[in-house]
Specification:
heterodimer, A: about 260 residues, mainly alpha, two-stranded antiparallel sheet, 3 helices, rod-shaped, B: about 300 residues, about 70% helix, about 0% strand
Chain lengths: ~260, ~300
């Protein structure tokens, strides 16, 4: 079925056959590589999903504690201190930096949190009452934010990996189901065309040979009958006999 | 003799207060509240006491709106009592609101310092600390103007006078200002209940003096505990302690020198009640001890 399948538009020559064979080999190598990449990414993806699950549960717990400590502050200080805190905070104490991690060619951003030590802008808040609670609340919220940062880096990795895995899988499938069959078809087509040409050529040669044979046979037959006729005449007068070695042009032999 | 003419001025108010007292939440109510699982349950439990004020809330209100409504009840009842009060009782109730005023003024000063629109701050102020000239505070755009022309007009002016200059408002931490004001306020209040001719020698004076002395001690101990690990120096800290109270003067002096929890425990050991508090919680030790202690005093 060489001509029926999907194939590339090439002239069936030996050169393009070579090209196609190279292409097929390349596609197979690429396929196996991509397949392995996709497997590595999927493994990583599963691990990240598991860690997201853990981080979310942890976040739930930590946020609960943090919210409770905020309620404690409200009770101890006896009012809303949000505004005061907002106004007295000048510098970020809790900071985030990013770095990149390379997972089989995919760059995943990772957020890393760190605290600037000795930066306590509202250390005196709640001096009269509730100062300890304010500080404790700050600590619990710092922990909560830490969990959030961790979760954020996992979520980003999750989204990016998801995207990349989709792309890689698409490529793997494209190579497996489109490029390789098409190249194979093309090779088959070229092979069959070349065979066809071979057969035609062989047939032609045979025909030519046959024709030659027939012509030769006919000629020989004619010559033989002529000789027989002249033999009879030669018996009457010999001088009519042809001189084979005489000055006479030979007919060219055509094969 | 002292109770003979009590009802002339205080009879009606006393009746009202006794009525209010009956609606206070009881131990039983608190037990029920701990069983609540949703905010609607809480609302239901509160409805005998706060029904009128909670009725307008939509089902499943936010905690802050619930808190606001319950505060509204307190404010409304307080305002009613204040309107009925005469003479020294009126003055006494005014004194009660000064604490909230200090908080509000501190809030407005913070806003002015950071050049915020102080108008939006008015909504955040505690309604009990509202005074007539408070919106005027919003007129001031810089701290000098605020000090010279606006704060002078407030009831808190005497507390600023003599202890804070307008440079202080700019430079000092707002918490220190607040606590200085509070110290002056407590001292003034104490002076009022012990020296006012109408109150001197009455049961009011006795009871309130004790309450205020405890409040003064509480603040002193709290400030000490909360200042550990901050940049507040010992001299500055000493200035924030009220100049009266059960610990004054020896305990206060020792508190001002205390460096850690043991120092505080030593300072209060002169007072039997406080000593036993410290023995109950403080001996569990460590940093959690400080937190527990602070909670005790809060």
């Amino acid at each position: 079925m060489s001509g029926a399948g999907d194939r590339e538009a090439v002239f069936p020559t030996r050169q393009s056959l070579g090209l196609m064979k190279n292409k097929l080999k390349g596609a197979e190598t690429g396929h196996s590589l991509l397949k392995r990449k996709s497997e590595a990414l999927t493994k990583r993806f599963r691990e990240i999903t598991r860690r997201i699950d853990e981080a979310k549960r942890k976040m739930g717990r930590v946020m609960q504690i943090a919210a409770f400590s905020l309620a404690e502050v409200t009770y101890a200080v006896g009012g809303d201190i949000g505004y005061q805190i907002q106004e007295s905070a000048k510098q970020a104490r809790f900071r985030v930096r990013t770095k990149q991690e390379n997972v089989s060619g995919v760059f995943l951003p990772q957020f890393e949190s760190y605290t600037t030590e000795g930066n306590n802008d509202f250390g005196l808040t709640g001096l009269g009452k509730g100062g300890q609670q304010v500080q404790r609340c700050r600590e619990t919220y710092a922990r909560a934010v830490e969990t959030l940062v961790e979760l954020a880096s996992l979520q980003t990795a999750f989204v990016i990996l998801d995207e990349v895995i989709k792309v890689v899988n698409r490529r793997v499938n494209a190579i497996e189901h489109v490029i390789i069959p098409r190249t194979e078809n093309t090779i088959k087509y070229i092979n069959s065309e070349l065979d066809e040409l071979d057969r035609e050529e062989f047939y032609r040669l045979k025909k030519v040979k046959n024709n030659k044979q027939r012509d030769n046979d006919a000629k020989e037959l004619e010559a033989a009958s002529k000789r027989r006729g002249s033999d009879k005449e030669n018996t009457a007068d010999d001088p009519g006999a042809t001189d084979i070695l005489g000055e006479r042009e030979d007919q060219d032999v055509i094969f | 003799m002292e109770g003979l003419f009590f009802n002339v001025n205080g009879g009606y108010i006393e009746g009202i207060v006794r009525g209010y007292r009956n609606t206070l939440l009881t131990g039983q109510n608190y037990n029920n509240l701990t069983q609540c699982e949703t905010i609607d349950d809480v609302k239901l439990q509160l409805s005998p006491a706060y029904g009128d004020f909670l009725a307008s809330l939509p089902p499943n209100p936010s905690t802050s709106s619930l808190a606001n409504k319950t505060t509204d009840k307190l404010v409304a009842e307080f305002r009613y009592l204040q309107a009925q009060a005469v003479g020294s009782i009126a003055k006494f109730m005014e004194y009660l609101t000064y604490g909230y005023m200090i908080d509000n003024v501190a809030l407005l000063i913070t806003g002015t310092l950071h050049e915020r629109d102080t108008r939006e701050l008015l909504e955040r102020c505690h309604p009990l600390g509202w005074f007539e000239t408070m919106p005027v505070l919003c007129v001031a755009t810089n701290i000098e103007e605020l000090y010279n022309s606006v704060l002078i007009e407030t009831p808190l002016a005497p507390y600023f006078k003599g202890s804070l200059s307008h440079q202080d408002l700019d430079e000092l931490n707002i918490e220190i200002i607040r606590n200085t004001l509070y110290k002056n306020y407590l001292e003034d209040f104490y002076k009022f209940v012990t020296e006012n001719p109408e109150l001197k020698g009455t049961p009011t004076s006795e009871v309130m003096a004790e309450v205020l002395e405890f409040e003064a001690d509480r603040r002193a101990i709290n400030i000490t505990l909360n200042s550990f690990g901050t940049e507040l120096s010992k001299q500055d800290r000493k200035k924030l302690y009220p100049d009266f109270g059960g610990l004054y003067p020896e305990g206060i002096l020792m508190l001002s020198r205390a460096d850690d929890l043991e120092g505080v425990a030593l300072a209060v050991s002169g007072n039997y009640d406080y000593k036993s508090y410290f023995e109950q919680v403080g001996m569990s030790g460590g940093t959690s001890g400080v937190g527990n202690m602070a909670r005790w005093w809060s």
